[in-house]
Design brief:
By secondary structure, the protein is α/β, with parallel strands linked by helices. The chain has 5 helices and 8 strands; from the N terminus they run βαβααββαβββαβ. The strands form 2 sheets. The protein has a 5-stranded parallel sheet, with helices on both faces. Strand 4, helix 4 and strand 5 form a beta-alpha-beta unit.
Length: 223
């Protein structure tokens, strides 16, 4: 992953750039995100030869709705009239990693979220961790520690909507929506309707690159 600034492709660049204090460069539109999730869902099915014993664990905040969207696509792929098509409540969970992070001494006021597993648990399952942006890898390391306290899955895989590089740990995603070259002076934000509500500008879901705010470490708090 190069350290230079990201250059959006023509197909994903909006007709007009956003304006205002939160303005940035849109590198994935709602349609791009939808296509990326559909491709990831097909790759998950192909890699695992179906969806049997599959569990999707979304990492808050935006990994949770992404896991929900992936579950819908997996059900559509596998829904051929068989009884094995995955059902959202049986395969989707939420994994809070707050107490497993290695930066709590720097951010002691982090809000502790909820961890919810499917009723069947994760023992012997193939667990796919789902997150929005993969950056240093430290959030995923925390997620792996959390999983080890919850059960013993057969395998753990990682799906990320965006991989922006600059890894600090030897962690690599299995499924990626978009590899996004960035510099460490930039910040990547993901807007999802389930979390962020309706965009007043009508842009909908989007992945946006911003220049890092003054006085804040680029990518701080990201995975």
């Amino acid at each position: 992953m190069s350290s230079g600034p990201a250059v959006p492709t023509p197909s994903s660049t909006p007709a007009s750039a956003p304006s205002g204090p939160s303005a940035g460069t849109v590198v994935m539109t709602a349609a791009d995100i939808s296509r990326a999730l559909t491709r990831i869902a097909h790759e998950i099915v192909e890699r695992n030869k179906g969806t049997d014993d599959l569990v999707l664990l979304g990492i808050p905040t935006r990994g949770v709705p992404l896991a929900d969207r992936l579950a819908e696509r997996l059900a559509a792929i596998e829904d051929d009239g068989a009884a094995t098509a995955p059902d959202r409540p049986t395969i989707v969970g939420e994994l809070d990693v707050t107490m497993y992070r290695d930066d709590l001494h720097r951010h002691p006021t982090r809000t502790i979220g909820a961890t919810r597993l499917p009723a069947s648990g994760i023992d012997g399952k193939v667990v796919v961790l789902v997150d929005d942006v993969l950056y240093s890898g430290r959030t995923i390391r925390a997620a792996l520690d959390a999983i080890s306290d919850l059960g013993r899955p057969r395998a753990v895989q990682l799906a990320a909507l965006v991989d922006r590089g600059h890894r600090e740990l030897p962690i690599r995603p299995d499924f990626v929506g978009k590899n996004l070259p960035t510099s460490t002076s930039e910040r990547v934000s993901v807007r999802l309707a389930e979390v962020d509500g309706e965009d007043p500008a009508g842009a909908g879901d989007a992945v946006v690159i911003h220049a890092a705010p003054a006085g804040r470490e680029a990518g701080e708090g990201r995975a």
